[in-house]
UniProtKB/TrEMBL annotation, chain A:
Protein name per the record: Uncharacterized protein
Biased composition (Basic residues): 108-120
Region (Disordered): 108-153
Domain of life: Bacteria
Automatic annotation (TrEMBL), chain B:
Any one biological process term the GO annotation gives: aerobic respiration
Cell cycle recorded as keyword: no
Topology with respect to the bilayer: Multi-pass membrane protein
Organism placement in taxonomy: Bacteria, Bacillati, Actinomycetota, Actinomycetes, Kitasatosporales
InterPro entries membership: NADH_UbQ_OxRdtase_su1/FPO
Similarity comment text for this entry: Belongs to the complex I subunit 1 family.
Compartment list: Cell membrane; Membrane
TM region(s), chain numbering: 12-34, 74-96, 116-142, 178-201, 233-252, 258-276, 288-312
GO MF annotation list: NADH dehydrogenase activity
Name of the molecule in the record: NADH-quinone oxidoreductase subunit H
Pfam families the UniProt entry points to: NADHdh
ATP-binding is among the record's keywords: no
TrEMBL record, chain C:
Principal location: membrane
Cell division listed as a keyword: no
Function: NDH-1 shuttles electrons from NADH, via FMN and iron-sulfur (Fe-S) centers, to quinones in the respiratory chain. Couples the redox reaction to proton translocation (for every two electrons transferred, four hydrogen ions are translocated across the cytoplasmic membrane), and thus conserves the redox energy in a proton gradient.
Family: Belongs to the complex I subunit 6 family.
Cross-referenced InterPro entries: NADH_UbQ/plastoQ_OxRdtase_su6 (IPR001457), Nuo/plastoQ_OxRdtase_6_NuoJ (IPR042106)
Reaction(s) the record says it catalyses: a quinone + NADH + 5 H(+)(in) = a quinol + NAD(+) + 4 H(+)(out)
Compartmental location: Cell membrane
Protein name, entry field: NADH-quinone oxidoreductase subunit J
UniProt GO molecular function: NADH dehydrogenase (ubiquinone) activity; quinone binding
UniProt keyword terms in alphabetical order: Cell membrane, Membrane, NAD, Quinone, Transmembrane, Transmembrane helix
E.C. numbers: 7.1.1.-
Length: 402, 314, 186
C-alpha cells in the first residue's frame, strides 16, 4: 500500500457522521447516536465537517416527500469530498450501515479526488441560505439588482430599538445540530435577533407509532406493557431532551453524560445503574448557579397557558422539571407491574389529547421567539423540545379512547 | 537575567506551541469521550480517543477545501490564516525559563496587540463564507471582545505596573520573591477568564458554538478549518502560558531549573482550564457583557489602583 | 536591509490605502484600511517608537473590527454584497484632496525644519510616559474627558430608553426592565 493510501486510511478511520433525520425516525437516530458513541466516531455539526451522511428520513406524504429529498440533497451537495452517503431504513441495521458507509468512504478516498477535479467542485450552498422570497420592501435602494449569484439580498425593516436595519429571511432546520427532527422555523433575522418566526412542521409518514409514546399507546391498545418499560422510555425521552438542552446551552460535558445515560437506559441498564448515572448529572445541573443565571428568565411562559401546554415557567424551570422526572423514572424502571391504560401521559403530555401535546408546544414557539437573540431562541426551542413524531395523525390503536 | 536565545529558537517556537496545543486538545478529547461513552476499557482505546485531534488534522488534509456560493474566498483565507499567525507572534515574548525568542521592551503590549488580531481574524472567517450562521459566529466574537478586552487590558497593565516594566522578562524578574498571583488575585483571575475568551474556547466558545453549527468555522473544511480551529488552540495555549510569566513567577521556583518550572506551571494552568470548562456552561454575551462591564472592569480598576499605591510606597 | 524594512511596509501602506477606494465590498475596504494602518504602525516602530507603533497596531485592529460590526448592522448580506462603489461625490472630493495635498506638500517643502539637537533617549517609552504624565498631563486629561463626554452624549442622544424607563420613576426597581435582560440587572 502506498503512503497516500495509508494516510487516507488512518485519516478516515473514524469518520465524522452527519445524520439527516426526519420526523418519525427517532428510533433510528437514537440507534445511530449510540453506535457512534460506542465506536468513538464524532458527530458532525454541519455538512462542512462531515464525511459520512446517514439518511434516516422517510419520504413523507404528499408534498413533504419532495421536501425531504430536497433538503437531504442540499446537505449532500454541501459536503466536501471525499464523502459517502448511506440510507438507514431500520434501527437494527445501524452498525451494518455505518460499516458499509466506512467502506464506501475509504473506496472513494482511495480514488484520488484531487487533481483537476479539486477546483471544479461546485460551490456549496451555505447552511441556512436564504431561499424564500425576500422582503416586500425589496432590496436596498441604490443597488442595481436584487440577486447576487442567484441569492437574494436582504431587505430592510425597523428593529427592536427603532433603527432601520437589514433583515434576512432564513429557514432554521431541519438539519441543525441538537434540533427537533423535522422542525423548520422560518425566521426573519436582524443581526442575530429573531424578529419573526413561523413554524413549519413536517409531519412524519403514517404507519409508525411515535417512539417516545409507544408504551402508553400499546397499553391503551390492550397490550400488556410493564410499568418499568414505560418509566424507562420516559427517562430516556427526558434525558434526550436534557442532552439537547445542555448541548445548546454550551455544556457539552453534561450533554454527553445525559446522552450516555439515555443510551444505557434504552440499552436495558438496571434501575441501580441508571440511578447511579443520573444522580451526579442531576446534582451538577441543579447546583450550577451559572446555568441558572444564564437560563432563568429565558422563554417565560405565562402561568395562564401552563394548563393547556403542560409546561410552565422559564427554560431553567422546565429543565428542573425534566431532572425530577428523570430521577423518579430511573428508580422505577425495573417495575414489572402492568401499566394502566388510563391516564396515558407520555413524556410530552397526554398521548390521546384532542391535539397532540407537541402541537401545543409548537404553537407556543413563535410568540416566545420574537425578539430573542439567536442563542436564546435555540434555548427556548430546546427547553420545549417538541416531538414531531406525535404529529402523525394516523389511525392510532387507542384513538377511540381519546 | 534575560539571555539571548539561539537563532533556531525562531523555528522551534511554532513546533513547540503546536505540540503543546495538540497534547492539550488530545487531553480534552479524552475527557469528552469519557463523558459520552463511559471510561475507556483499555489503554489502547484511551490512546485512540486522545489521538482524535491528530486524526482530525490528517482528515482535513485529505479533504477538499470547500467554497460556498458568493463567498469572499480571499477574506476567508486571510481570516483563517491570521489566527494561528497571531498566536505564534504573541508567543514570541513567552519565556521558557528566563529566555524567550525575543524579550521585546514592550512585550506586554505586544502580546496584547497580537492577541487582538484575533478580532479581525474571526470576524473575517465568519463574514467571508456568505452564510448566516457563520456570520453570527463572527460577530458573537466581536461582542465577546468588547466584553473581555477592557478588563483584560487592565489586568495585564496591573502586572506590568507591579513590575514597573513592560518587558515580560522584567515582570518575571520582579517575581523572584512573591508571585503576582498572590497579591493581585483579581487581575490573575481576570487574565484567566480573558485567556478563555480570546481563544473563544470553553465557557466562551459561542462564536464557534454548536448551537450555530460551528459558528465562524461552520463553512470551513480542509486547510482553512485546521488553521482556524488549530489557531484557536494555539491562542489558548499562548494565553494560558502567558499567565505564568505575568502572574505565577515564570521560571522562579526551588530545585528545578527555570524551564522545568515554566513547563510545570503552564501544564497546571492548562489542566485547570480543561477541568473548569467541563464544570460550567457557555456564557452568552447578552448576560456576560453587563457582568464584565459593571463588575469586572471596576474590580480591575480597583486592583490596578491598589497595586499603584503599593508601588508608589515601595 | 534597512532599505527593504522601510520600503516594504511603506509601499504596502500606501497601496492598501489606495485599494480602499478600488474595492467594491465594504468588508474588503475596511480590512484593506486596517492593513494600511498596520503597516503604518510598523513604520512607527521603525522610527524607534516601539510602544507607539505597537499601540497603533492594537488600537487600529480593535477599531476597524468594531467598524465592521456597524457595517454589518446596516448592510447585513454576508459577503455577497452587490458591488457598490466606495467613492461618492468624486469631483468635489478630488478638488478638496488636491488642494489639501498641495497645501501639505507646500508646508513640508517650505517649513524651516530645525536641525537635530541632542540624541534620541535610551528609552523613548519612558520619556513619552514622563511627557504625557508630566507637562502634558492637563492636555491629556482634558482630551480624555472631552472624548468620554462625547461618547456618553452620543449614547444619550441615540437611545430611546433612559434610566427612568429601565428602573422606574423613582429609580427604585431592583432589576432593570430591559427587552433582553442583562446579567446584572443595572
Amino acid at each position: 500500500m502506498d503512503l497516500r493510501g495509508r494516510i487516507v486510511r488512518a485519516a478516515l478511520g473514524r469518520p465524522r457522521v452527519l445524520a439527516a433525520v426526519s420526523a418519525g425516525a427517532t428510533e433510528r437516530r437514537l440507534a445511530v447516536e449510540a453506535e457512534l458513541a460506542r465506536r468513538g466516531w464524532p458527530c458532525a455539526a454541519a455538512p462542512a465537517e462531515a464525511d459520512l451522511l446517514v439518511v434516516a428520513a422517510d419520504p413523507g406524504p404528499g408534498t413533504a416527500g419532495a421536501g425531504t429529498a430536497d433538503w437531504v440533497a442540499r446537505l449532500w451537495e454541501a459536503m466536501p469530498a471525499p464523502r459517502a452517503r448511506v440510507p438507514l431504513a431500520d434501527a437494527g441495521e445501524a452498525a451494518a450501515v455505518l460499516d458499509h458507509g466506512l467502506a464506501e468512504l475509504r473506496r472513494r478516498g482511495g480514488a484520488r479526488h484531487g487533481g483537476g477535479h479539486r477546483g471544479g467542485h461546485a460551490p456549496a450552498p451555505p447552511a441556512g441560505s436564504p431561499d424564500s422570497p425576500q422582503d416586500p420592501d425589496g432590496p436596498h435602494a441604490g443597488h442595481d439588482s436584487g440577486l447576487v449569484d442567484g441569492l437574494p439580498l436582504a431587505g430592510r425593516a425597523d428593529d427592536r430599538d427603532g433603527l432601520r436595519l437589514d433583515r434576512l429571511h432564513l429557514p432554521l432546520g431541519p438539519a441543525l445540530p441538537d434540533w427537533p427532527a423535522g422542525l423548520v422555523l422560518r425566521v426573519a433575522l436582524q443581526g442575530d435577533v429573531v424578529q419573526r418566526a413561523a413554524v413549519e412542521a413536517d409531519p412524519p409518514g403514517p404507519g409508525r407509532l411515535p417512539f417516545w409514546n409507544e408504551p402508553w399507546l400499546r397499553a391503551a391498545a390492550g397490550e400488556r406493557v410493564a410499568r418499568g418499560e414505560a418509566a424507562r422510555r420516559l427517562c430516556a425521552a427526558h434525558l434526550d431532551s436534557l442532552g439537547r438542552f445542555f448541548a445548546v446551552t454550551g455544556w457539552p460535558d453534561l450533554a454527553a453524560r445525559a446522552r450516555y445515560a439515555r443510551d444505557r437506559a434504552l440499552g436495558g441498564a438496571g434501575a441501580a445503574e441508571l440511578s447511579a448515572l443520573v444522580r451526579p448529572l442531576t446534582r451538577r445541573a441543579r447546583g450550577s448557579r451559572t446555568l441558572r443565571w444564564l437560563t432563568a428568565g429565558v422563554g417565560v411562559l405565562p402561568a395562564g397557558r401552563a394548563r393547556s401546554l403542560g409546561v410552565a415557567g422559564d427554560a431553567h424551570g422546565r429543565m428542573l422539571g425534566w431532572l425530577d422526572a428523570v430521577a423518579r423514572a430511573a428508580s422505577a424502571c425495573d417495575d414489572g407491574a402492568p401499566l394502566a391504560a388510563d391516564p396515558a401521559v407520555g413524556p410530552r403530555g397526554p398521548v390521546h389529547g384532542p391535539v397532540p401535546a407537541s402541537r401545543a408546544l409548537l404553537d407556543a414557539l413563535p410568540g416566545l421567539l420574537e425578539g430573542a437573540e439567536f442563542a436564546c431562541a435555540r434555548i427556548v426551542v430546546a427547553s420545549l423540545d417538541p416531538d414531531l413524531d406525535e404529529l402523525a395523525r394516523a389511525p392510532l390503536p387507542g384513538a377511540a379512547h381519546g | 537575567m534575560a539571555e539571548h536565545p539561539p537563532s533556531w529558537a525562531v523555528f522551534a517556537l511554532p513546533v513547540l506551541l503546536a505540540a503543546v496545543a495538540l497534547v492539550t486538545a488530545g487531553a480534552d478529547a479524552l475527557l469528552a469521550a469519557g463523558a459520552r461513552a463511559g471510561p475507556a476499557r483499555s489503554p489502547r482505546e484511551a490512546a485512540a480517543r486522545a489521538a482524535a485531534p491528530a486524526r482530525g488534522v490528517l482528515r482535513e488534509l485529505v479533504r477538499q477545501p470547500r467554497r460556498t456560493r458568493a463567498a469572499d474566498v480571499a477574506l476567508v483565507r486571510v481570516g483563517a490564516a491570521l489566527l494561528p499567525v497571531a498566536a505564534m507572534l504573541a508567543g514570541v515574548v513567552l519565556p521558557l525559563g528566563f529566555r524567550s525568542v525575543s524579550d521585546l521592551p514592550e512585550g506586554v503590549v505586544w502580546y496584547n496587540a497580537m492577541e487582538a488580531l484575533a478580532w479581525a481574524a474571526v470576524w473575517l472567517a465568519g463574514w467571508g463564507p456568505n452564510s448566516a450562521l457563520s456570520l453570527i459566529g463572527g460577530y458573537r466574537f466581536l461582542a465577546q471582545g468588547l466584553a473581555y478586552e477592557v478588563p483584560h487590558m487592565l489586568a495585564i497593565t496591573t502586572a506590568a505596573l507591579g513590575a514597573e516594566s513592560l518587558r515580560v522578562g522584567g515582570v518575571v524578574d520582579a517575581q523572584s520573591g512573591l508571585w503576582f498571583a498572590v497579591w493581585m488575585p483579581a487581575a490573575f483571575g481576570i487574565h484567566l477568564l480573558s485567556a478563555l475568551a480570546m481563544a473563544f474556547w470553553g465557557p466562551f466558545d459561542r462564536p464557534a458554538g454548536r448551537d450555530v453549527a460551528g459558528g465562524a468555522a461552520a463553512e470551513l473544511s480542509g486547510v482553512d478549518r485546521i488553521l482556524l480551529l488549530g489557531g484557536r488552540w494555539l491562542l489558548l495555549v499562548v494565553a494560558a502560558a502567558m499567565s505564568v510569566p505575568l502572574f505565577l513567577g515564570g521560571g522562579h521556583g526551588p530545585l528545578l531549573p527555570g524551564w522545568a518550572w515554566t513547563v510545570v506551571k503552564t501544564a497546571a494552568v492548562l489542566a485547570f482550564l480543561l477541568w473548569a470548562r467541563r464544570r460550567v456552561p457557555a456564557l452568552r454575551m447578552e448576560r456576560w457583557t453587563e457582568a464584565a462591564w459593571v463588575v469586572l472592569t471596576p474590580l480591575a480598576v480597583v486592583q490596578a489602583l491598589v497595586v499603584a499605591v503599593v508601588v508608589l510606597h515601595r | 536591509m534597512e532599505f527593504v524594512v522601510f520600503w516594504v511596509p511603506a509601499v504596502l501602506a500606501v497601496g492598501c490605502g489606495a485599494l480602499v477606494f478600488r474595492f467594491d465590498s465594504m468588508a474588503r475596504a475596511t480590512f484593506s484600511l486596517l492593513a494600511s494602518l498596520l503597516c503604518t504602525g510598523g513604520l512607527v516602530v521603525l522610527l524607534g517608537l516601539d510602544y507607539l507603533g505597537v499601540v497603533v497596531v492594537l488600537m487600529m485592529t480593535l477599531e476597524m473590527s468594531v467598524m465592521a460590526v456597524f457595517m454589518v448592522m446596516y448592510m447585513m448580506n454576508p459577503a455577497g454584497l452587490t458591488p457598490m462603489t466606495m467613492t461618492h461625490n468624486t469631483r468635489a472630493a478630488a478638488v478638496v484632496c488636491g488642494l489639501l495635498f498641495a497645501l501639505l506638500a507646500a508646508g513640508i517643502l517650505s517649513a524651516p525644519w530645525p536641525d537635530r539637537r541632542g540624541r534620541p533617549p535610551d528609552d523613548p517609552t519612558l520619556d513619552l510616559g514622563m511627557s504625557l504624565m508630566g507637562p502634558q498631563m492637563l492636555t491629556m486629561m482634558t482630551l480624555a474627558m472631552a472624548l468620554f463626554a462625547t461618547i456618553v452624549a452620543t449614547v444619550v442622544l441615540a437611545t430611546r430608553r433612559g434610566r427612568y424607563d429601565r428602573l422606574g420613576d423613582g429609580l427604585r426597581a431592583r432589576r432593570a426592565d430591559d427587552p433582553v435582560p442583562g446579567g446584572v440587572g443595572r
